[in-house]
Amino acid sequence: MRIPAKPGSPSAVTVSLTRSGAWGQQIYAIADVEIRKLLRDPTELATRSLQPVLWLVIFGEVFNRVANVPTGTTDYLSFLAPGVLAQSVLFASIFFGIAVIWEKDLGIVQKLLVSPAYRGALVLGKAISAGFRGIVQAVIVYLLALLLGADIVTAPGSLLGGLGLVILGSATFSTFSLIIACWVRTRERFMGIGQVLTMPMFFASNAIYPVSIMPGWLRWIATFNPLTYLVDGLRSLMIHGNAGHYPVGWDFLVLCFAFGLLVALATYLYPRLGR
Predict the structure, then answer these.
(1) Which of 36, 105, 222, 232 is deepest in the core (most CB within 10 A)?
(2) How far apart are CA 152 and CA 107, in angstroms?
(3) Model pTM?
(4) How far apart are the first and last CA of the chain?
């Protein structure tokens, strides 16, 4: 009979390091596969880039002439740019679950579930790949906002912080999409639920107007909406004058907490796709 190693013994440390290495390799493998699929067919990124262009060029330019939106010393186009970036991240990530359902129909999910891979590694790998999509959206919105004359911060620290928030937001909302896919398990149901959820999440956030002008009940809902904190953090990092409502550290903390909860729930529900 094999006697298990005592905690802290060399063999126990070796097992722990081996498991950590396996986790990292599995997360990398899943993320690499997802990113390769996206690079081979970049049409999705091209079509997704049209939405922020329309919001900034048409909606932003028109409402930039309206003086009734209280954005302080920031013009409305600059105020809107982080909201458009967060919106594009949300819309691109929330339909991530359709690809997972497609993999279920092709039998790929069943093969992954019978493999020795950790379920959490499968979920994290897909979340990281969704972060790559968010980076592409961020580059498009940053460049377009600068071309339109928005007052965007280009300091390296702010750019890196903004990209970090975008990656975290993309991972959070794609994991939320994965949970929906595990629950409904059909593309038709997913499309209906996805469309129902995206617009309320968008309008119940501070993406296109500040929290201060919201009615009380909507302000209460916005405090529990992760998109609110993604937009707020991006405003603090993207716009001169620190236009955020909360501290940036608090925005990161809330998104990390939401991401951790969603990963735990997605890890628990992921085996449902194999049934």
Answers:
(1) 232
(2) 46
(3) 0.83
(4) 36
